Amino acid sequence: MSKLPAKTETIENVESPAFDPSKAVEQVRAVAEQSVEQSKEVFSKLSSEAETNQKAVESTLEMAKTTGNEVSLQVIAALRTNAEASFAHLEALVAVKSPSEFLELQTAFLQKQIEKSAEQAKALQALMLKATEDVSKPIKDALEKALKEGKAA
C-alpha cells in the first residue's frame, strides 16, 4: 500500500447557494395549502360515505319494520284460520252420534290441518326469505357501491 501525502487544502472560492427565507416561506405555504386541500377532499369523501351509510341503515330499518309487519300479519292470519277451523271442528264433534263417526271426523280434520300447516309453513318460509333479501338489500347495495368506488380510486 502506498501512502498518500498528508496535505490539507482549503477551498475558498466555492459558491454555496444562499438561503432565501422568502422562498422557504412560499414553499411552506404551498405545502400547507396542498395539505388543506387534501384534507378537505378526504373530509368531503368521508362525509359523503357516512351519509350514504346512514341512508342505507335507515332504509334497512324501514324495510325491517315493513317486512316484520308482513310476517306478523301472515302469522296472525294463519292462527286465525287454524282457530276458526278448530272451532268448526268442535261444533261438528258435538253433533257426532257414534264413535266411528267421531274417528272419521277427527282423522279428516287432522289430515286437513297437517296439509294446511305445511302450506302455511311454506308460505311463511317464502315470506321470510323475501324479507331477509329485502332487509339486506340496502346494506348490500351500499357495500357494493363502496367496493366499486374503492377499486376505482
Structure write-up:
- With 153 residues, this protein is mainly α.
- The chain has one domain (31-152).
- It contains two helices and no strands.
- It has helices spanning 21-94, 99-152.
- The two termini are 60 Å apart.
Low-confidence runs: none
Number of strands: 0
Cα shape: rod-shaped
Structural class: mainly alpha
- Elements, N to C (H/E): HH
Rg calc: 40 Å
Proportion of residues in helical segments = over 70%
Number of helices: 2
Quote the distance from N terminus to C terminus. 60 Å
**pLDDT averaged over residues:** 84
Total of domains: 1
For the largest beta-sheet, the strand count, sense and barrel status come to: none
Beta-strand content estimate: under 5%
Concise overview:
By secondary structure, the chain is mostly helical. 84% of the residues lie in helices and 0% in strands.
Note the main attributes of this structure.
mainly alpha; 2 helices; Phasin; Phasin_subfam-2
Helix-strand blueprint:
Blueprint: H1 21-94, H2 99-152
